[in-house]
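Chain A, query sequence.
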Amino acid sequence: MNKIQLLTKDIEKSFKGLNRLTLVCVCLSFIFSLVVGLAALNYAERQREKIYVLDQGKSLLLALQTDAVMSKELEIKDHVSRFHELMFTLSPQKKTIQENLDRAFNLADKSAYEYSQDLAEKGYYSRLVSANISQQMIVDSVVFQGNGYPYQVKTFARQYVIRESTMSEYAFVSSCQVLNASRSDVNPHGLIIEKFVVLENNLVETRKR
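Chain A, predicted structure.
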């Protein structure tokens, strides 16, 4: 075998080795691109599953839900709870009472305003101020009634009326329906309460402080 033949074989071996190396590099690049693409898709999917809820209207908390229905229910429950806390947690100061009511009205339709007007005409808020009475609402649960839209919910809560020497506890139940609306600074969940009705507000006990 002459030198030319040996050189030719060496060149062929070199080309084969180069081809193998190129093929390995291409395969590794493809695998790397595939892994990066899958990771990006997984990250994007997890980002779409994120929602934010208000913690008693004070701060935004990140909530992760795998089910869009559960996410919506969470927002509705937070919206309804916040509305009740604003409507019924009151201090014996006229300005503070009005500020809380105004914030609650941003979350509901005229049924909430009409309910508060009825209380005002009966002198309810005036008595809180004149007798130095505080009121606190603690929501126990917000329960969905059916699966249709608008969302029908019932709220179960405890209402405390705090006087200088006594504290009275009331079992409170209300109903309303919730509709989708535009999100805003004063309505971060983008929901609106309609047909608000107080079903029960019964005295449980009165005890000395």
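The chain has a mean pLDDT of 84. The longest strand covers residues 191-208.
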